[in-house]
């Protein structure tokens, strides 16, 4: 009998009498796995988006907006693609507070290099432009290109530099702007 029965350690069982119960340990482990799996099964797709569901990295299906379920523990992975939103990429300038991470990946000094171009008659010109796009096929968007927004950004710069390089400074600044727009498409 302990000397001080009111101490908090007086009610603890004797460690020598402790017995490991494997069924109890497996039950606790199973409960943890079950709760973790249940918490990772449900996901929500926003109203303007589509989720591309992949099972072990291969395309399984596209699902629309709302609450959906998937297999847990990395069996199914989800990529959310905004298909009803008009996206844009800005070149040569940056709008403050933009929401597209690929819209302006450059610092202020890099923007100068992005918008400075040389025309076909070897004159320097400053060109700022915007590319607006929307995603029509989410499956192709996810699987056909590596880093699709960056690929579109690089492609747009290459096309614009080629179009500007094929024209004189007068065409770039005045009379050829409409033609440049249609050729760039």
Could you characterize what this model shows?
The protein contains six helices and nine strands; from the N terminus they run H-E-E-E-E-E-E-H-E-E-E-H-H-H-H. It is an alpha+beta fold and 185 residues long. The chain has two domains: 17-82, no CATH class; 87-184, Tetrahydropterin Synthase, Chain A (2-Layer Sandwich). The strands form four sheets. Strands 3-2-5 form a three-stranded antiparallel sheet. Strands 1-4 form a two-stranded antiparallel ribbon. The chain is elongated and about 95 Å long. It starts with 21 loop residues before the first helix and ends with a helix.
Mean pLDDT: 85
CATH class of the largest domain: Alpha Beta
| Record field, number of beta strands | 9
Q: End-to-end distance, in Å?
A: 91 Å
Radius of gyration: 30 Å
User: What spatial form do the alpha-carbon principal axes imply?
Assistant: elongated
**CATH architectural category of the largest domain:** 2-Layer Sandwich
């Amino acid at each position: 009998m302990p000397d001080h029965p009111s101490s908090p350690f007086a009610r603890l069982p004797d460690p020598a009498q402790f017995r490991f119960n494997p069924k109890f340990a497996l039950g606790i482990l199973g409960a943890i796995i079950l709760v973790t799996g249940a918490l990772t099964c449900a996901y929500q797709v926003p109203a303007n988006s589509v989720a591309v569901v992949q099972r072990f990295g291969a395309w399984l299906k596209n699902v629309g907006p709302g609450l959906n379920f998937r297999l847990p523990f990395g069996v199914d992975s989800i990529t959310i693609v905004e298909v009803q939103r008009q996206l844009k990429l800005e070149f040569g300038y940056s709008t403050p507070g933009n929401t597209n991470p690929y819209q302006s990946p450059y610092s202020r000094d890099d923007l100068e290099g992005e918008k400075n171009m040389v025309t076909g008659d070897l004159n320097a010109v400053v060109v700022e432009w915007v590319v607006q796009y929307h995603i029509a096929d989410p499956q192709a968007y996810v699987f056909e290109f590596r880093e699709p927004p960056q690929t579109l950004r690089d492609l747009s710069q290459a096309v614009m530099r080629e179009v500007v390089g094929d024209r004189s400074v007068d065409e770039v600044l005045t009379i050829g702007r409409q033609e440049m727009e249609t050729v760039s498409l």
